[in-house]
Amino acid sequence: MSGVTIRFHGAAGTVTGSCFEVRGAGKTLLVDCGMFQGTRSLEALNHEPLPFDPAEIDAVLLTHAHLDHSGRLAYLYASGCKARTYCTAPSADIIKPLLQDAAKLQAADAERRNRRADRAGLPPFVPLYDGKDIAKLHRNVRAVSYCEENNLGNGVSFRFWDARHIVGSASIEINIAGQRLLFSGDIGPGRSINCTTSEIGGYDHVICESTYGDRDRELILVSERRETLARHVEEVIAAGGNVLIPAFALERTQAILEDFDALFESGRLSPINVFLDSPLAQKVTMAVMRYRDSGTGMLDRTNIRFIENVAESKKLNRMTGVVIIAGSGMCTGGRIRHHLIRNLPRRQSRLLLPGFQVAGTLGAVLRDGAKRVRISGNDVIVKAQVATLEGYSNHADRSGLVEWIKDRTPVTGSLFLVHGEQSALAGFADALSAIPDLPATIVPKLGETWQLQPGEAAVRLTSGRPDAADLTASRDWISKLAALREEVEEKLSKQPTNQGREKMLAALKRALESV
Predict the structure, then answer these.
(1) Which of 136-150, 266-280, 461-475 has the lowest average pLDDT?
(2) Does residue 514 form part of some domain?
(3) With contact defined as beta carbons under 8 Å apart, do 363 and 332 qualify?
(4) Are 241 and 350 spatial neighbours (Cβ–Cβ below 8 Å)?
(5) Residues with Cβ < 8 Å from 395, sequence gap 6 or more?
(6) CATH code of the domain containing 133
(7) In whole angstroms, how far apart are CA 389 and each of 43, 198, 357, 369, 463?
């Protein structure tokens, strides 16, 4: 039995960019190939060449369809990968429209950035992939069932366990070189539905997500969640504003639409107009409904309307007293951004954030109380109220994560914590340290390689990227510059005279020249 190595290409010290390379027994496996989301510095990693040879990959194992896990799969095939990608049937159905939409957004973003005057003479932005690359991926996708063992040769096998995160989500067990590894993927609340209890537990090494590792959330009933949503909507409509809800096309949008359907059905809300301004979310909703038994009534409601094209989307900017649901969930792209430009300056409107906001994203900046933001080259004053909608998270909290780990003991080698911001990783590590018989936790850095042996603590073979700490910081220099610009403009506007403003600008110039 030879050793196994694991290299952390993403989701190490940060929440997004899930990508883990496992080598052993003459095989190279890739668990996920997701997009980085967050600060500009972190998102720039998406455009770097992949830090491994895609042609050497023997199999890709996808935990679920969210873009931070799947968003660079087509880039992987554009770069030379010829392996099969294994995932559940729902994930196989959903990743194609998700990646097609991502490619469309990348193309539009590249065109917009390349037109900007401040980019004159700089290398052009190029989309990561196009439709042809997505077709390459799709030809290599193979759907597998939960619990079935799948052999890859050389004694290497894998199987998927239900993760209860979104439809089709999975934790992935890999048996390789005499070792049993478990990748959690994203874990949902509640107990997982397992194949047989006797097969759970007893891993050499576990790689576990930590998104909410530093906090427990108060249990919110669906009825309470819906009542909160109804109150927000009533207040805004009465004030003559609009409700904006940025939501991921997969799972979050369907949950919100189901809530509106229930509120209209019960009479708790009058039938106001709810617009889903996302062709992708419409496609995904249709796909998801094939695997769910509830919520189909919303498709027949005349006041829940699907926006088909850009012209219809722009018409919404002339409306008041409506609810607009649009992507993306962290306000990093998509149609929600032009709705934010129109509505954030309006005191009557309200932005409702129904999920986790990664540090550095526009959603997180707005959540944290920014008074001015920059969207698509526009400086936007924020007068609208910003509120968080609790109860929509599909992630287990700290107690749920701890129970998930306990259910999979004994873990005889190492326990790696990934998919978390620094505070979440540290908080989860502290919680696990109090549990007897668990190995010490490891928080890997971006780019690190670790050697795995059966029943032994992992050994670090190579250091991570020298810029790993800066990349995974909650605010990069671009974010700090934006905050500084906002502070300067605020102080300048408060100066009572132009003479005072000139004096302040001169002082700033001297400070810059002295650096």
Answers:
(1) 461-475
(2) no
(3) yes
(4) yes
(5) 165, 186, 187, 188, 189, 209, 211, 212, 356
(6) 3.60.15.10
(7) 26, 39, 12, 16, 40
What is the percent of the chain where pLDDT is above 90? 67
Sequence letter at residue 99: L
Tell me the pTM: 0.85
CA distance linking residue 188 with residue 400, whole number of Å: 8
The whole-number pLDDT of residue 188 equals 92
- Domain ends where: 388, 415, 444? 388
Q: Using omega within 30 degrees of 0 as the cis cutoff, is the peptide bond preceding 54 cis?
A: no
Helices (H), 240-329: 252-266, 279-289, 310-315
Residue 206 contacts residue 171 (beta carbons within 8 Å): no
CA–CA distance, 196 with 174 (Å, rounded to integer): 17
**φ and ψ of 442, to 5 deg:** -120, 130
Same domain, 195 and 260: no
Range of 47's domain? 4-215+394-471
pLDDT exceeds cutoff 60 at 295? no
The domain that contains 320 carries what CATH number?
A: 3.40.50.10890
Which three-class secondary structure state does DSSP give residue 452?
A: strand
Residue with tokens 């209209």: 264
Say how far apart CA 382 and CA 373 lie, in whole Å.
7
| Identity of the amino acid at 39 | T
Does the pLDDT of residue 483 top 70, yes or no? Answer: no
Q: Would you call 22 helix, strand, or coil by DSSP?
A: strand
Q: What radius of gyration do the chain's Cα atoms show?
A: 24
Q: How many Å apart are CA 261 and CA 46, to the nearest integer?
A: 38
pLDDT beyond 60 at 296: no
In this structure, are 241 and 383 located in the same domain? yes
Of 352, 294, 289, 348, residue with least CA distance to 326: 352
At 140, list the tokens: 């290599």
For the beta carbon of residue 270, count every other beta carbon within 10 angstroms: 11
pLDDT given for residue 1 in this prediction: 42
| Residue 371, SS3 per DSSP | coil
Q: In 118-221, which residue ranges form alpha helices assigned H by DSSP?
A: 131-139
